[in-house]
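Practice problem: Integrase
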Amino acid sequence: MSDVLVFTPKHKLDYQKNYADFIAFAKNDLTLFGDHEFKAPLGTQKGWECDKWSWDTARSKKLTIVFGNSVNHSKYIPFKQPFADFAKAYVRYEQSLNHKDSTAWASSLVWIYNALEESAAQNDRADVDIMHLNNTVINRVEEQIKNSKLGAGAKRNIGLSFEKVLKFIKDKRFKLDLQDWLNPFPRPSDSRIKLDEDSRKEEVEKCPSDYQMLQVADAFHKAKTPRQKYFSSLCVMLMCQPSRNTELNGLTINSLQRSEKGRLYLMWHPAKGGDPVKKWVPKLLEDVVQQGFDRLIDISEPARTAAKFAFENPNIFMMHDKCITPTDFPQDKPLTYNQFAKAICFKTGLDSNGTQMSWTHNGSIKWLRNLISQINHVADWKKDLLNGCKVSQDNEILTKHTHNPTGISIKFPSYRDLRSVVDQKYKTKDFPNYGDVKLWDCITLVRENEFHKEFDVKPFSWVMVGHGPVSDALGSDRPSGEETIESIFDELAITDEDGTRLQLNTHQPRHWLNTKLKLAGEEDWLIAKWSGRADIEQNKAYDGRTQEQKSRLTKRIGHVANGEGVMTVAQANQFLLPYTSESPPPAIVLHDLGLPVSLKSLGINRSGVAQFTGLGYCVHNYAESPCVKNGDCAVCSDHECLKGLPNTLEELKNLEKLNEEQLEDAIVKAGDKVFGADRWVTASGFRLSKIKTIIAMMEDPNRPDGTPIRIPDELDPSPVKRSLNIDEQNVIPIFDLTALALSDMEES
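Answer key — C-alpha cells:
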C-alpha cells in the first residue's frame, strides 16, 4: 500500500495552477496598497503582510478593510491562511481595476471565511482555503446571512457581494463545480410608497419638526463652550442651505462671500462631485450665518496653523506652549520622558501607585513601542534592552531592585522622530490639499482631542471632523460602550417638545429644508440645484410632506403675497387648509397666494393654466389660433378679470382716462375734417365702451369678490365668425357704440 499513488485529474491541477498564479500576480505584480500609499499605524506591518488596509478615496473619504473577524472597533482576529491571501488578492485586484468609493463589494468575505472555517473544523482540517468552497458551504453562507439580525438592506448588499465573489471564482477558473447562485435577498421596500402605520411613521420622522429645528437655533444662541459653539455653528450651515455633512469640510475661509448687489452666499463643494456650487443665504439668516462662520474660523485657527507649519517646515516638530525644552533645543537630540510627554501631551508626574511615570508606563502604546525599538535597532526594546530593569527620567537603565545606574542609556525619540509620527498620523495622501483647496483654509479643521473632556488637545495636530463626532453632538444613537455620548443639547438642557432627549442626525436639516421648499411650491429643478444633486428624481427621497400636505395645491410661482404684503408659508398653508385637490380653491385665492391659476377655476372647461396679464388672466386657446388682438388684453373677450383683484380696477380707470382723452382729440380732428379722424372716433369709442363696461361690472355690488368678469360677446365681434359668413347683425342690431361712449363722457 505504501507504493500506491493518488491520481489527481488534470483539470484539478489546472484549477490549482490558475489559483496559485492569481495569488502570485496580485501579491507580486500589483502595487495598489503598497508601502508608498498605504495607511497603517506607525510601526505596524504594511502592504501585503498587514491585515488591515486603509486608504483615502478621490473625495478624501477614508476606507478600511479588515482581513479578519472584528471583535470591536479596534480589535480583530485575522483570517487564517491560505484564505487570507485569497481575500487580499481579491481586494487588491478588484480595487486596482476600479477604484471604488465603498467597501460593501467585499463585505461577504468574512461570511465566506466563517462558513469555510466551520467546514474545516467539521472535517478536521487546520487550514481555511477558498478551494474547499462547495455547494454545502455556499448554502451555509446563505443560511447565516438569512438568520443574522442585519437589516434587509445590509443582507442584500452582502448577498450581492457574495454573488460577485462566486462569479469571480468561476470566471477565473479556480473552481467550476459550484452551483449557480443568485442573491435571494430583495431590495428593501420603499417606505415612501407603503401605506402601513410604521412606514408612514418612518417617513414622518425623517423630517425634523419645526420645534426641533428651533431648538437647534436655541443651542446656537446659548452655546458657551468651544464644543457647543463649533457643532451648533455646523448646524447653522446645514440649516441655511441643504447640504451633506461631508460637504462641511469643504468650507474655507473664503467660502462666505457677498455679491455685487449685497447678497450673501456660500461656495459649497458637492460631495457627489461636480463644480463648486454658489448657494444664496436666506436674507433672514445672514447675520446668524456670518456669526457661525466667524466662530468656525476662530475655533479652527490653531489646527490650520499646525497644518500650514507642517507643510512649510518639513522634518521639524512644531514647538508649542506645553513643551518644556528651550526654544533652541536641537531637533535630533533624544528627549527625556518628561520632555517627550509634554511635547506629545502624555501624562507626567506620579501614577496611581505613587510611582514616577516613565517610558514603561506607555508600553501598551503600539506606535511608541515600535518607534523606540526602531530607533535602537531591536525587535522589542523592553525585552531586548530593558530586560526587566527600570529606566530613569534621563533614559538611563537602572538595576531592577536597587535602582542603581548601569551606565547604559537607551536612545529615545527626538523632536524629529515625533515629526515623523505627526506626518504619519495626520498627513493624507493629497496633503496639503483637500480637494481643490488648501487644508489650512478649511474652517472645520480641528486638533485631535479638541473637544475631549479627559484627554489633552494635541497642539501640533490637525484632523477633519467626521460624521461620528457630528452625530454624537446632535444626539444620534451611537453608543460608546454602555454609555451614550453627551450631546450639545444634553449639555445645554435642551429637550424635545415632549420633554424627552432631543436627537437629530446630520441629514435631517437637509430633509427639513427640502420639505419646506416643496411646501413652498418651488420647482424640482431649483430644489435639486440648491441641494447639489444632478438627478431631480432624488428629490423624492427628501420630500417629508404629510399626505394631507401633499393633497393641497401648494405649488408657488413666486412670493406668497397678498395685497398688504408678504405672507409666510405657514400662513399660506393655514389659508389653504379648507381646500384639497378634489375641492380646489377659487381663482382669487390662488392669485392672492401667488399660485398658478387653472383655466377651470376661471370657468373654462379646458386643462391648463391661465397666463396673468397684470389686469387679469388670458384664457385664449392658442391651439386654435394665435392672439388675434395683438396683446390688447384690456378689450379682449378671451381675457378675464377677477373682481377684488388688487390694482386691477385702478388700472382700468387709468385706461379709461387715457382713452377718453384720445376720443376727445379724435372728435376735434373729425370736426376739422381731418382725413381718417372719423374712424379713430369709432375705434376709440368702441374701445372706451368696453373698458367702461368692465369697470361697471367690477363695481357692481351684487357681484362678490373673485367673480370672473369678461367683455360680453355683444361687444366683441368675432373675425372667425365673419370668415365663416355668420351674420352678427342680430347680435348688436341697435348698438351705437360711439354715442354710448359720448353719453357716458357727458354724464361724467
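Discussion: The two ends are 133 Å apart (CA to CA). Students who identified this feature from the C-alpha cells alone can consider the problem solved.
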